[in-house]
Amino acid sequence: MALAGSVMMFSAGCATITQGTTDALLIETTPQDAQVQVSSGQSCTSTPCAIELPKKDPVTVEISKEGCTTRRVNVLSQMSNSGGAAVAGNIIAGGIIGLGVDAATGAAKELTPNPVVVELEC
Known about the structure:
The chain is α+β, with helices and mostly antiparallel strands. It has one domain. The chain has four helices and eight strands. A five-stranded antiparallel β-sheet has the order 3-2-5-6-7. A three-stranded mixed β-sheet has the order 4-1-8, with no helix packed on it. Strand 2 (35-38) and strand 3 form a beta hairpin.
């Protein structure tokens, strides 16, 4: 039983377990009912909306509405405030493998800005 617990501790990172590897990116626009296309392929047909994205990769969000100027917003993948604590937890617990898992999956990161708030020029 103790062996199973040790294997689990070293096979997954703290942030991967506590924070997950994806996040809901919220998109809000004025005026509402704009279309959203994300560089990773996801989209929504009417704002406000939320799109589930991996936290490890930056994306570009394109927001358009007929009669308005199309806007693009770069959403970055950055170390989150709580992600730093998870990294420290991995180091203290000796979880070098967990540290690698968190880095590879993006679990210790967050998407920013989130929410994406855009005022369209119409």
